Amino acid sequence: MAAAQRTPAVLVRGLTKSFKGHDVLRGVDLEIEAGSVFALLGSNGAGKTTIVRILSTLLSADAGTATVHGLDVAARPARVRATMSLTGQFAAVDEALSGRENLLLVARLRHVPDPRGVAESLLERFALADAADRRAATYSGGMRRRLDIAMSLIGDPAIIFLDEPTTGLDPEARLEVWDAVKELAGKGTTVLLTTQYLEEAEQLADRIAILHKGRIIANDTLDELKKLLPPAEVQYVEKQPTLEEIFFAVVGEKEGAEA
What we know:
259 residues, alpha/beta, Rossmann fold, 9 helices, 36% helix, globular
């Protein structure tokens, strides 16, 4: 007898949304497998954040259906919120508090057992233990973002929505956030990542959907998406370093010289 099909972490059918007569979503269909990293790729204004806000119950759709772990977001918003966490485009940390105090505050608000133990575990998991007692105002952009993601994990949500988590970050901070997302995936958390950075989707996602003018125009694994274009005929290849490789080589040399 065949095994029962797993309920998708997210299932969207025919989702539409307009603002002041402007169609932002025009019949979006999505299905996200539990435990996967799913990237929603699109330019500014494509409708990525609108989808996340609907899925996280912050906004109502005009038409269509959306479920999170089988729960209808319109009919059962409180139950949906109990299964998910949202990290927006800007880190929502209290800069007057230390990293540990931010985590303790959220743990107590969510009534989790042993809030101090939860805070200490997350500080270690996201490499923030050495800065635990520093005010978050002194953290780098990458550290604040890691703290923000750590706060989102309190209560062990089954799914986390990351809405353009690396916008405005420098290359080093961006890699720190990538490592945090890979850590989430390794623990089995379902991640819906919205981004406008192609390399980010390529590095992190099990599956990528391209949202353009309110519609999904492609949705597949990276390997399958590559097949949409014919392979280029290469006669001679000269490997040139990428700007990222140059940046880290120069930074590494400078740090070595200072040491």
